[in-house]
Amino acid sequence: MQSFDSWLLVSVLLLSALSMVMISSASMTMAEHWKQDAFYFVKNWLIYMPAGLLLMYVISRIEVSWWQAATMPLLLCVFTLMVSVLVFGTKINHAQRWLSFFSLSFQPVEILKPIIILYTAHYISSFPERLQNFSHGLAPMLVVTLSSLFLLLLQPDFGNAALIISVCLAMWFVGGIPLRHLLMFLATIIPIGLVILVSESYRVKRLMSFLDPWADAQNSGYQLVQSLLAYGSGGVYGKGLGQGIQKLFYLPEPYTDFIAAVLAEELGLIGSLSLVALFMIIFWRSMVIVYQTPDVFSRLLVLGSCLLLVASFMINLGTTMGLLPTKGMPLPIISYGGSALLGSYILLGFIFSVQRHQS
C-alpha cells in the first residue's frame, strides 16, 4: 500500500483546519444567542471533524475490489434509508430530509451521493459489452439513478437531484455510453426538470431573486444581498478574522450555506482565492490519479468522487456570489453539518483508496 498523495492530503487537512477556524468565527454569536453557549457548534465540530478524518483514513485502507463487491448491498442499504426518511424523517423548513436517532440527526442524501457514484462505476466497469445497447446499457443505470432522484424530489431536494444527475451524465459519457443515448435522455429530462422547477413558487422566487436580488432586498433577495455585501466589504485583505459584520444576524445561518461569504468578508479576496486553490489542487491530483489508473472501476470512482466534490464547491461559491440561483447546498468540508462533512470524507476516502492501492 502506498502512502498518501502529499498534495492531496495537505489540501484536505488545510481545508479541515480552515473549516474549524471559520465555523468558530461564524457561529459564536448565534450560538450564544440561541444555545446560551458560544462554543456549542465548535464543540460539535471538534467531534465531527476527527470522526470524518478517521472515516476517510479507514476507507483509504480498504482494497478497491472490496468496494466493487459491496456495491449492491450498500445501494440497498442507502435506498432503505432514503425511504425511511420519507416515513420517519424530521421536517425542517418544509423539507423532510433528516433522520433522528436519540439526539443525533443526519441526512441520508449525503450517503446516497457517494453510493450512486460507486454503483455507476461498478455497472460501467462490469458490463462494458452492454453499453452500446440502450435497454441493457444506460437503461438499468437510469432506473437506479431516477429512482434516487424521485425519492429526493419527494423530500423535496431539487438541488441535490440536479447535482447527482449532472455527475452521473459526466461518468456515463466518460464511461462509454453512446452520445446519442445521452442526448435522447437529456431531451427528455430537461423539459421535466423545468416543469418541476417552476411547479413550486419558492423555486421561482429564488430564480427571480438571483436575476435581480436588489428588487426585493428585504424578502426573496435578502440572503443574496447580505452575501454580496459581505464579499464587497471584505476587499482584498479582509476585515480580519472574527471582525466580520454580516454574520451578526444579517446573513442567515452564516456558518452553513453562506460560510464562503463570511470567509470573503474576514479574509478578503486572498482568502477566497486560497479556498479556490485548495479545491483546484484536489481536482488536479484526482485527475492525475484518473490518468494513472488502468482499472475502469477505479478510474470512474475517482472521477465521480472528484466531480461531486468540486461541483458542490462551485455551486456553493456561485450561489454566494450571485452567479447561480440560491440553493441550500453546503460548501464541502468547510460548512457546518455532520452529514455533509462525513459524505465529503467518504468521497475523499474513495479517492485515497484508489491512489493508495495502485500498483
Question: Topology, pairings included?
Answer:
Elements: H1 6-35, H2 40-61, H3 64-69, H4 71-88, E1 90-92, E2 95-101, E3 104-106, H5 109-126, H6 138-153, H7 158-175, H8 179-198, H9 201-211, H10 222-234, H11 259-292, H12 296-320, H13 338-356
Antiparallel strand pairs: 1-2, 2-3
General description of the model:
The chain is mainly alpha-helical and 359 residues long. It has one domain. It is built from 13 helices and 3 strands; from the N terminus they run ααααβββααααααααα. A 3-stranded antiparallel sheet has the order 1-2-3, covered by helices on one side. A hairpin with a 2-residue loop joins strand 1 and strand 2. It is globular and about 60 Å long. The mean pLDDT is 89.
Provide a compact summary of the structure.
With about 350 residues, this protein is mainly alpha-helical. The protein has 13 helices and three strands. Strands 1-2-3 form a three-stranded antiparallel β-sheet, covered by helices on one side.
